[in-house]
């Protein structure tokens, strides 16, 4: 079932008019109407609002993934200039938090820090908190900042698994060098991630479900740094 069919079916199952759904989500009735005929698709914030309201995962909302997800998720475009940087970023991520790397010296009170250096490149990931957290990943070349990504997230249920999250994040790839893959499932856990933008300027959202209940979510955004 395509996205526009999903929205219409879910709306009608709740006995809602297009006007009422629009009021709940905080948009115009015309926007809902366009979604339901396939003329437009929601941005990340509205997609999350729909997911939460109907209590369905984002990947279910944008089912028929091969056909529809590219309309909600802009393909990652890796320029030749960024290839070396992105390859390093992926190696750095797999060597630090997701790869169970050792923490480096705390840079701020109660912060968790990870550092990876390879030749002229340096990567630092630093975050605060645990059950609710925020942090930043950044890259330098010869001590000149190149790129950064900020993130903020929270654990929603005790069924959350750090081990599963790290397994997902360790699958970071050149095509999606931000967090994890678009979709990943293992046992009762399911992860999905949506991205808008490109490596130079992007925003995204990831979530984990356990037995169809959301147990974790994280927002992130970032891009290249120009001095």
UniProtKB/TrEMBL annotation:
Q: Which domain of life is it from?
A: Bacteria
- What Pfam families does UniProt report for this protein, alphabetically? DUF5680, HTH_3
Keywords of the record: DNA-binding
Which residue spans traverse the membrane? none
Q: Any idea which GO molecular function terms this record carries?
A: DNA binding
Residues covered by the HTH cro/C1-type domain = 7-61
Claim: Transmembrane is one of the keywords in the record: no
SUPFAM superfamilies, sorted = lambda repressor-like DNA-binding domains
Q: Which PANTHER family match?
A: HTH-TYPE TRANSCRIPTIONAL REGULATOR IMMR (PTHR46558:SF13), TRACRIPTIONAL REGULATORY PROTEIN-RELATED-RELATED (PTHR46558)
What protein am I looking at?
A: Predicted transcriptional regulators
